[in-house]
Every structure is written in C-alpha cells, then in structure tokens.
Amino acid sequence: MKMKKIIALVLSTVMMFALCSCGTDDNDKNFTIGIVQIMEHASLNTIRDAIVDRLSELGYVDGENCTIDCQQANGEASNVSSILQSFEGKGCDIIIAITTPCAQAAAPYSEKIPVVFSAVTDPIAAEVVDSLESTGANITGTSDALDINKILDFALKITPEIETLGYLYNAGEANSVSCLETVKAYCKVANIQVKELAVTNTSEVQMAAESLCASCDAIFSPNDNTIAGAMSVVAQVANEAKIPVYVGADSMVQDGGLGTVGIEYTDLGIETANMVNSILKGEKKASEIPVKVFNENLSSYVNKTTASEIGIVIPEEILNGNKTIIFE
Q1: Are 313 and 202 within one domain?
Q2: For the CA atoms of 258, 262, 265, 270, what is the dihedral angle to 10 degrees?
Q3: 139-to-41, 100, 115 alpha-carbon distances in Å
Q4: How far apart are CA 19 and CA 312, in angstroms?
Q5: Which domain does 189 fall in, by range?
Q6: More confident: 12 or 291
Q7: Would you call 319 exposed, middle or buried from its count of C-beta atoms within 10 A (0-12, 13-18, 19+)?
Q8: I need a labelling partner for 143 at 20 to 30 A (CA). Which of 13, 38, 137, 185 fits?
Q9: Does 170 share its domain with 254?
Q10: pLDDT band for position 16 (50/70/90)?
C-alpha cells in the first residue's frame, strides 16, 4: 500500500512538471499581434484580411489562442503614433505595419518588438531598412514596388497620344515621391511633359484632379494612400472630363481608374503572415528574413466600365492577355 502511494506521488509530480513545461513552450503561447494601417481603402483592407486569413490557416485564431488587434489611423500620423503606443502598452509580441507611413512610425519600436511591414514601395528610401537582403534591425516585410516603366508602357499602348501626363500624389508619402522621379525619367525619354500636383489630404483631391484634367491628356497616381482613399472622387472627375487615369494598385482600378500593371495584394498579405509566423515560432529573427519584393508575375488590370465612359477602346492584345484581369 505504501509503495502504491509512492508511485502515485511520483506520477503526479511527473505530470505536474510536464504541464508546466507545456505552458512555457512558445508554440503554446497566447500571442498578441498588433496590426496598424494608415486608413481604410480596398488595397489595404485586402492586405489586412489576407494577413488575418493566412494567420488563421497557420493556427493563430483571434479570440481562441491569440489576440489580433487591427487598427486604422484615418490617414492621420498622430493616430498611428497613438496606436503603436497602445500596442507597446498591451505587450504586443509583434507589430504588423501596413503602408510606408506606418512602417516608418513603427521602426523605432523594433528595438523592443519585432516589426513586419507590408505594402512599403521603397523601404530603403523610406529609411525603414538598410538593405533588402539584411535589414540591419528587428524589422522586415514585403514591398509592393511598382514597375513604373511597365505601367507607362501599358498606358501608351492604350492611349498613345499622351503629350502631357498629370502626376497626382501626396508629397508626404515617401513612396509617391520615389515614384515621381522614375516617372520623370521615363517621360523625358518619351518626350512627355509631366505636370505634378500634390495634396496633403483627401479633401484636396477633387480640386487637384479637376486642375489636372483641365491641362493634361492623362493622369497617373501611384499606390498613394491619400489618392487611393479618394479614388472614387478622382474617377468621377476624370470620367466627366474624358481623361484616362492610370494607377498603381488593382483596387484603384476597381474603384474607377482605367488600368495598371501590378501584383495581387492578397499575395502580399499571405507572405507577410508567413514572415510573422516564422518570427513568432522562433525559426528566424526579423533581421534574418530578407524583404520580399513583389515585382514578378505581374497582371494587367482594366476597368471596362471606365473605358466605355471615357470613350477608350482597349486593345485586344490587352483584353485577351493571359494575365489580364477585367473589372466591369
């Protein structure tokens, strides 16, 4: 009888240690994941939703075994700062920063918390990382770098008569400033005049669009968050003036832009989540994960409704292309 008690005591002790060991395993930790985006618009929401869906597939289910705190800043830098401070206060295990302004604001927090960014067009120019191969800090992510030359080649196939190109952007967004230099270089070779017009917020977009439509043959706006947030306004103004608008993101085509060449933003979100998973599992540090630039296997996007409204005929080679996606 005494021996049975000893055996029972040993077994219970072993089980207690086993349970304690499981509770400290990182794989069983209830992680808190903070996601911040600069504002609500289709491209950013697509990325965010793809991140959350992919994390769920990887076993991170919000409200069950982790907390995924999604916040958006209504286009205000001060709100981004407040959100990041709250993430730090809540003890977030990782921060996901969607867009360049959010990545720039989140970078200092990487000293204590791993940061994974998404949709940062030029992370080096934005001073988010030192290099794409080895970031030099506790931060990494995915880039939606635009192939400006392909987009403008695409624009000239559809509207070869462009002599003056309007460039609509927010000068406060580093990615838009970076793209402008490439646009100018392309247009110099193509003998196209560039007329740039910057805004500081969405309330200024309509007047800027009207000004460009009155003096340009076409408008180009990169994946600029301010313009994307007011894309329906730009489309309405441009359609009334019969001016084609070429853009930097598929969602901006869906919201009324005539067309673009680029990536599928769902892929951006999926890869961002894969990076987060690798960091949380302890497989790699953020500094050991190269920035993933999505600049291959690009698709062409065309809005047929917009084309019809402004009297543009899309060439058959584009409409029937294997990688062409049509919005109606």
Answers
A1: yes
A2: 170
A3: 25, 13, 5
A4: 68
A5: 148-262+298-327
A6: 291
A7: middle
A8: 185
A9: yes
A10: very low
Domain at 319, CATH number: 3.40.50.2300
Residues 193 and 212: their CA atoms lie apart, in Å, by: 13
Q: Give the Cα separation of 209 and 227 in Å (integer).
A: 10
Q: How many CA atoms lie within 13 A of 177 on its CB side?
A: 10
The answer to whether the CB of 265 falls within 8 A of the CB of 47 is yes
| pLDDT of the residue at 276 | 98
- In the chain, the amino acid numbered 129 is V
**pLDDT at res. 28:** 61
In a domain, 211, yes or no: yes
Residues 235 and 302 in one domain: yes
Whole-number Å distance between alpha carbons of 270 and 267: 5
Instruction: Judge whether residue 136 has pLDDT over 90.
Output: no
Q: Are residues 183 and 303 in the same domain?
A: yes
Q: Are residues 102 and 201 in the same domain?
A: no
Q: What's the number of domains the chain is made of? A: 2
Same domain, 203 and 315: yes
Asked if residue 246 belongs to a domain, the reply is: yes
Residue 71 lies in a domain: yes
Calculate Rg over the CA atoms of the chain. 24
Q: Are residues 186 and 72 in the same domain?
A: no
Query: What tokens were used for 182?
Result: 């490439």
The model's pLDDT over 79-103, given as tens digits with 9 standing for 90+, comes to 999 999 999 999 999 999 999 999 9
> Smallest Cα–Cα separation from 180: which of 162, 196, 163?
196
